[in-house]
Amino acid sequence: MRVTNTGQWADAEAVRAYRAAVSKEVDSVVVTRSVGDVPLLANTPLGKTLLQFRIYNLASHQRVLLRAMQEGRGHFTSMMVA
Q: Are residues 19 and 44 in the same domain?
């Protein structure tokens, strides 16, 4: 990342750890639908028609809400408000 100038850091292990942490956080925050996030009904033609605008909500529930529940009350509350 250019903002943090990690290319200029002397400690290679710190650079690796920082980049891994940022990558993990970005992957958990950005919601993309995968096969396991939606019910099997959503993969049928009828299900695609019925759930075409609900797929994101289902994927968001799996990624954001369930993760926030594991991180404690304060984080869970802030994720629910967001």
A: no
**Same-domain status, 42 and 70:** yes
Regions of the chain where pLDDT drops below 50: 1
Q: Is the dihedral of CA 5, 7, 8, 13 positive or negative?
A: positive
- The whole model's pTM is what? 0.48
DSSP states of 8-22 as a string? G-S-HHHHHHHHHHH
If asked whether residues 38 and 1 sit together in one domain, one would say no
Nearest CA to 59 out of 82, 28, 21 is that of 28
Q: Which domain holds residue 18?
A: 1-30
pLDDT at 2: 64
